[in-house]
Amino acid sequence: MEKKKSKTLKEKMDIGRVDQIIDKYRGDASYLIQVLLDIQSENNWLPKEALERVAERLKVPLTRIQHIATFYKAFSLVPKGRHGIHVCMGTACHVRGAKRVLDSVQDLTGIRPGETDLDMKFSLETVNCLGCCALGPVVEIDGKTHGKMAPAKAADILKNYE
Amino acid sequence: MARLNSPEALEKFRKEILSKRNPDTPCISICAGAGCIASGAEDVIAAFKAEIRKEGLTADVDTKGTGCPGFCERGPVVVIYPEEICYLQVTPADVPEIVAQTIKAKKVVERLLFVDPATGDKAVHESDISFYKNQQRTLIGSNIKIDPKSIEDYLAIGGYTALPKVLTGMTPEQVVAEVKKSNLRGRGGAGFPTGSKWEGSRNAPEPIKYVIVNADEGDPGAFMDRALLEGNPHSILEGLIIGGYAVGAHEGYIYVRQEYPLAVENVTLAIRQAEDYGLIGKDILGSGFDFKVIVHQGAGAFVCGESTALMTALEGRVGEPRPKYVRSNIKGLWERPSVLNNVETWANVPLIINKGADWFTQIGTEGSKGTKIFSLVGKITNTGLVEVPMGITLKDIIYKIGGGIPGGRRFKAVQTGGPSGGCIPESLLNLEVGFDELTRAGSMMGSGGMIVMDEDTCMVDVARYFTSFLTDESCGKCVPCREGLRQMHKILTNITEGRGKEGDIELLELLSEVAKEASLCALGKSAPNPFLSTLHYFRNEYEAHIKEKRCPALYCKELIAHYIDPAKCQACMMCLRKCPVGAIDGGKNRIHVIDQNKCTNCGTCFEVCPARFGAVRKISGEPVPAPIPEEERNISRKSKEK
Question: What is the pTM of this model?
Fold first, then answer.
């Protein structure tokens, strides 16, 4: 019960905070993407209420905001899991076997890229290059980079996340 | 701190900084670039700081996290000045020994030095290492010497000397003329002459103009711009301010990917420092020139690296390209003249001003001047960033600097130019690197990604990979790119999964033709390159996939099988334990057999089988041998039976 409560709190974003972000950019509509990025980075996803507020304050149609929120990869319109897994599919990682690492991460978590599991534990994404090519194949979990990955190593690492 | 109101005040301040610095004071520089941080550099920096404090040396030794020197393969990299001793793959456990031996006793810790794999010689200094010896590092060489978060460090190595020179001694026209004379060409991919671009904007009638840094480095496998922006942000700012002065712009933008948080942080800090000193802002150095810089983060869209798409993104809209009937240097951001250059192009500007166009044109080939940073990655011994003069051969980059292919494998191809580029085969390794030379070989310079592939890389899969990348990143505005690439990707996937059929190659060629001719922007126009270049040089691989359902590189999962050679299997249980799907049957002293119906070809058994046995092999294009009869599966170990 306690857990559920904290989740609902996290899913909703304080509108006052959205206003603060908008004020930081002086309500200038050309900073729309920057405003959304700030909300995304703070909240991990873009709740509908926040987008409505942005539309109202910046005087931008909600459709345009949705166009942007679905066009750019950084944005998510659904809540994300506690741990974000980013499997690098850049060329250097690809030629060193990133596909096989991704396959095994998919098998282990039961989700495909873009999905979040039902327990809200993991969200899986592929990225196109983290720039740590010397360590490829690379998997980044919650901002920590795990290098020289192999299918067998993925299981050992994912075990450490609760 | 006081604003610097004149070039003299700037020089005075520089002298003050230098007078406080003794070049003989030991300085421990630890790479704090993203690659080394991923290898644990932050812990190493913390360990050095703690050790120096513990030994009471804080006043006598400088310790700093610096920009990326490029040798990511052996990170974390530590260089100790003034001796310039270079230690590689340093861990926190090595720190007390380094401080005791090198800092206090002035001795070299041999075991942390670079050992040349060919000769076995140890290299003490950075400049002795074969990886660095054959480079010409005019842009990236300063990275390891400065803390990117310190403007004083940049001033101490002679930074911001080109800016006062331009503001007090040159007219904007002279600056444009100097850049034109240098023949500097855009480092972002297309290689457009920078000076001409500037001149077009300068002469455009609209009074408000912009200069923009393109730091939306989206090519997978390329991180040159990140290293510059993270490691030496002031050099890019200085170039940008000079560009603004030359073009007549008073506003500059830096469009940087949000995937590069450290670059965003360092460049934002650099702008604030430059503002504090009056190097950005109103009346810069008393010259009357005003200039401000704004950082804009990209939100993850490859197409935004395209000039017109980037500008629409800057306006706060969806980044879609527009047709270029009028070039963006005439009508760009907010429909005003806008000069957009790549990070590396801007970084070259202060050098050209300081050393002169004549110095710059001495380096390079007829059509391509100066140096170029490449990110050398993939199946290569020394992964990292290499800065070389234009005109060096691919062979020299891959073998002399890169140290060749690891694991005794054979070189197959090198891919340049990112997703829009192409693969260059072994027969063309003597090719000189330059904009026109690479285009003639069916590839392109691009922004500088250089991905080395060995015999285990399937070229059809490489084409499929890039096409998949571009299908995903297509903005969807024009049909040839949105629909054409989707179909190409489908056909290529079919081929790699064993469903290729006669006529596929011809259909792909047709789709390529249309995408090349009819797409709106460079993304679509160049998207067929990976397919066309691999087809041109590796047609046999396509045919093997289609006709024989065989992957010659033994890579494509659907076309291979894993098989344990009963003559070699020592029943060590390694693969059996590690197999994620339980497809391997066997036991102690019982030869292992893979159940082909259960096997997912994940390759784990192939990886874990001890090299001295080498019992697991991949098979393609031929049936898997039948398992040996049960009664022959027991291994009798003679030594034990005696």
Answer: 0.91
Q: Residue B344 and residue B365: Cα distance in Å, rounded?
A: 18
Tens digits of per-residue pLDDT, B266-302? 999 999 999 999 999 999 999 999 999 999 999 888 8
At B27, the amino acid letter reads C
Nearest to B316 among A32, A128, A132 (CB): A32
φ and ψ at residue B293, rounded to 5 degrees: -125, 135
Contacts of A67 in chain B (CB under 8 A): 318
Does the beta-carbon distance from B39 to A96 stay under 8 Å? no
Partner-chain contact B602 A100, CB within 8 Å:
yes
Q: What DSSP string describes A102-141? A: HHHHHHHH---TT-B-TTS-EEEEEES--S-GGG-S-EEE
Q: Is A92 on the interface with B (CB under 8 A)?
A: yes
Cβ–Cβ gap B301/A72 under 8 Å: yes
A131 with B608: Cβ contact below 8 A: no
Amino acid A1: pLDDT:
38
Asked if the C-beta of A27 comes within 8 angstroms of chain B's C-beta atoms, the answer is no
pLDDT above 50 (res A156): yes
> For A100-128, what is each residue's pLDDT tens digit?
899 989 989 999 999 999 999 999 999 88
d(CA B577, CA B565): 18
Of B139, B184, B215, B189, nearest in space to B449 by CA: B189
ipTM comes to 0.86
A77 touches chain B (CB under 8 A): no
Query: What is residue B553's DSSP assignment?
Result: T
SS3 B455: coil
Residues whose CB is less than 8 angstroms from the CB of residue B222 and which lie 6 or more positions away in sequence, other chains included: A129, B375, B418, B446, B447, B448, B449
Strand partners, B598: none
Q: Which ranges of chain B have pLDDT less than 70?
A: 1, 637-642
